[in-house]
Structures are given as C-alpha cells and as structure tokens.
Amino acid sequence: MTHLQAGLSPETLEKARLELNENPDTLHQDIQEVRDMVITRPDIGFLRTDDAFILRFLRARKFHHFEAFRLLAQYFEYRQQNLDMFKSFKATDPGIKQALKDGFPGGLANLDHYGRKILVLFAANWDQSRYTLVDILRAILLSLEAMIEDPELQVNGFVLIIDWSNFTFKQASKLTPSMLRLAIEGLQDSFPARFGGIHFVNQPWYIHALYTVIRPFLKEKTRKRIFLHGNNLNSLHQLIHPEILPSEFGGMLPPYDMGTWARTLLDHEYDDDSEYNVDSYCMPVKEVEKELSPKSMKRSQSVVDPTVLKRMDKNEEENMQPLLSLD
Predict the structure, then answer these.
(1) Would you state the pLDDT for residue 270?
(2) What are the boundaries of the signal sequence (predicted)?
(3) From CA 320, how far away is CA 17, in angstroms rounded?
(4) Can you say whether the dihedral through the CA atoms of 248, 250, 253, 254 is positive or negative?
(5) Quick check: helix, strand or coil at residue 162?
(6) Can you tell me the distance from the alpha carbon of 258 to that of 255, in angstroms, rounded to the nearest whole number?
(7) Is the separation of the CB atoms in 114 and 196 below 8 Å?
(8) CA–CA dist 110, 108 (Å, integer)
(9) How many whole angstroms separate alpha carbon 167 and alpha carbon 208?
(10) Which residues are paired to 41 by β-bridges?
(11) Three-state SS string across 209-260, please?
(12) Which among 1, 6, 89, 310 is most buried, taking Cβ atoms within 10 Å?
C-alpha cells in the first residue's frame, strides 16, 4: 500500500483492486501516464496535476488511462467554458449559500450497504425568488468537490435520491434543455465521481415526460443507474435499506434536517444571512445557452417535446407504474 492509499480501509482497498483495477505496485506509473497526456491539450489550463488529484480521475474511470485523462480534460474544459459559474465558487457565495441551506444537496449521515454516500434533493424546496437553478448546480458541484476529497468515496461513490413531491409544473418549466445539458455536462461528463444509483421518487407525470426527452442524451451506463419509483417506496427500499433513510422516504429515521450539510460547509457563517438579488447573478440561464458547446442539446422554448406531452395527461400520473432499470 502506498501513501496515496493511506485513507482506505482494508475492505475498500480490496474493492479498489477488484472493481477498479487499482494496483499499488503500478499506482505512480498509472498517474504519470495520465499526467504525460496533458501536453496533448495545450488549449486547456490544467490547474492541478498532482498525484492525489489525478488519482481520483483514475478511480472514476477504473484505471483506463486515456478515459481518465479525457475526464480530467473535460473537468477543466467545463470550467473554462463556464467561467462565470466558478468566479465565486465557495459556500459563502450568496446564491450557493441559499441553495445549500434549502438542502441542495443534502447528505444522509449513514452510508448505504456498499459504502456509498447518499445525497438527497427535495426539488420543491427551490425558491425561484432567492436563487437560480444555476446556483443549485453550483452548490451541488461545490459539495461534490468537498466530498470527493474522501478517498473512500472516490472508490465507493454516491447514490442520489430526488424527491419530486409538490414540485410544480411552473418550477418544471425552468428545466429547459439548455439548463439540463449544463447539468449533464457538469455531473456526468466532467466530474470524477462514481454514481451507483439515481432514484426518482414521487415524480409527477411531467417529470417522467422530461426524463423521456433527456434520456437519449445520457450515457448507457447512466441510464442503467436511474430508477423511477413513483409512489412505490417499497421498490426504493429494495435498493436502499429503510433503516438508514429519513421518514420522507418511508425510512425509520426522523425527517431530514435540510441544513445538515450546509452547516458542515458553512460552519459559523451558516446564520449570517446577506441579501441576494437573484437577478444580479451574472450568468442567468439564457446566457448559459450561449456558453454551451456545439454538441449541446438543440435549443427549445418548451421543456419537453409537445408530441410527448400530447401522449400524456394528468390522469397518467396515477396510473404510471414505476420503471426500474436494474443494473
């Protein structure tokens, strides 16, 4: 075991060896091979290339050198293409702070039975008058940056549960294709985290329709890890034990405290509320569209394809069966 593996338990070390192809005898050589590729992309400013930083990208791509380098390049390229998102990239930034305090994201105290960190989002908590969807994305990315410092989570990864209860059609209308593309690029394509599952619960018909539209833009691996449970919490409990879930998800623990993770990041500044004008943020969603790469999803004024909505009405919400994609 090298010093780079010092933070791993014996069980996680074995998991890294078996599942991620991590070999302590070749670890430094693996890292150097990725580092040597940096010269092939002079258009990108690689602000960090230290051993510990590159290692998280190797773990995220199971020690496939080129795939790890591509993820590393996309990580910094995403930040170059969306500079305004990262100008004030800290927990005390007013927009990020408001999102964090409303539970974007939340983090449960207990890991799941695979050692994964369970993140939770309560979509209806979004207050459009106080912060933007971009602020929520920034808060999630900042939180992941803090959590991924833990080598155990680099190996074991994360699980995400999104509760769509009381999320209105008006709120959903803000989930434009360009906004969703920005999130997909930032989370799926440009961040060194392993997501073992993304669970939708209590999703209304229009969120199901929205997922139908964005599904082709997700990687096959990502699609296999998305579970649409609807109101059937029993199917959620088959994958995440209710003993570690709060009551909102039919679990045995008390209701989730939305400020739990925010207090961890903000510490004594949690209660220091400063005024934040949501209109003053320098990168509204309509500007995000201009920043997206040519590969981006085609712009649309509507949230979903009208032909999809035509085939679905509100009565379908009650009749819709949860869709489970078991990996």
Answers:
(1) 80
(2) none
(3) 41
(4) positive
(5) strand
(6) 9
(7) yes
(8) 6
(9) 12
(10) none
(11) HHHHHHHHHCCHHHHHCEEEEECCHHHHHCCCCHHHCEHHHCCCECCCCCCH
(12) 89
- Mean pLDDT computed over every residue of the chain: 86
In this prediction, residue 269 carries a pLDDT of: 82
> 5 or 304: whose pLDDT is higher?
5
CA distances in angstroms from 304 to 46, 109, 202, 273, 293, listed in the order given: 37, 36, 19, 36, 21
pTM (whole model) above 0.85: no
Intra-chain end-to-end CA distance of the chain, in Å = 31
Q: 161: part of which helix (H) or strand (E)?
A: strand 158-163
Q: What is the pLDDT of residues 274-297, one digit of tens each?
A: 555 554 444 433 343 333 333 333
Question: Across residues 162-177, what is the average pLDDT?
Answer: 94
The secondary structure element, H or E, covering residue 315 is helix 315-319
DSSP letter string, 35-76:
HHGGGG-TTS------HHHHHHHHHHTTT-HHHHHHHHHHHH
**Cα(321)–Cα(319) distance, rounded to whole angstroms?**
6
